[in-house]
Amino acid sequence: QVQLVESGGGPVQAGGSLRLSCAASGRSFVGYTMGWFRQAPGEEREFVAAFSWNGYTTRYADSVKGRFTISRDNVKNTVDLQMNNLKSEDTAVYYCAAGETTSTSFGAYEYWGQGTQVTVSS
């Protein structure tokens, strides 16, 4: 059974930092891109960042460039998202995803975690 389990969310003050982690298990993720999406209340799920299997491709949403950094450990099957200088508009449930794609579209990703809440207060 494939599982993606996120951790590291919580409340934080604006300007602060959080580090999200995602542990993947249940199958080989060779060739899979791993990424992060987020969904705020009443909004559609949106792309945040992605890291390809070979590391040749990393992608970021314009709204997080320069503040968020995605990293990946292919031995441990983990992907992290370091979030700095957080803003109130970053408040959302953050989801880890895996797929044989480097797309920014959530429909292109095959596996999903349950999500972790990030709440940024100003």
Outline the secondary-structure elements.
Elements: E1 3-7, E2 10-13, E3 18-25, E4 33-39, E5 46-51, E6 58-60, E7 68-73, E8 78-83, E9 92-99, E10 111-112, E11 116-121
Parallel strand pairs: 2-11
Antiparallel strand pairs: 1-3, 3-8, 4-5, 4-9, 5-6, 7-8, 9-10, 9-11
Strand tally is 11
Q: Which residues sit in consecutive blocks of at least 5 with pLDDT less than 50? A: none
Taking the sheet with the most strands, its summary is: 7 strands, mixed
Q: Note the total helix count.
A: 0
- Shape descriptor reads globular
Structural class: mainly beta
Helicity range = under 10%
Query: What letter string, H or E per element, gives the SSE order?
Result: EEEEEEEEEEE
Mean pLDDT: 96
Rounded to the nearest angstrom, the radius of gyration is 13 Å
The span between the termini is 40 Å
Strand content: over 45%
Explained architecture:
The protein starts with a strand and ends with a strand. A hairpin with a 6-residue loop joins strand 4 (about 35-40) and strand 5. The strands form two sheets. Strands 2, 4, 5, 6, 9, 10 and 11 form a seven-stranded mixed beta sheet that branches. By secondary structure, it is mainly beta. It has strands spanning about 5, 10-15, 20-25, 35-40, 45-50, 60, 70-75, 80-85, 90-100, 110, 115-120. The model has no long low-confidence stretch (mean pLDDT about 95). It is globular, with a radius of gyration of 13 Å.
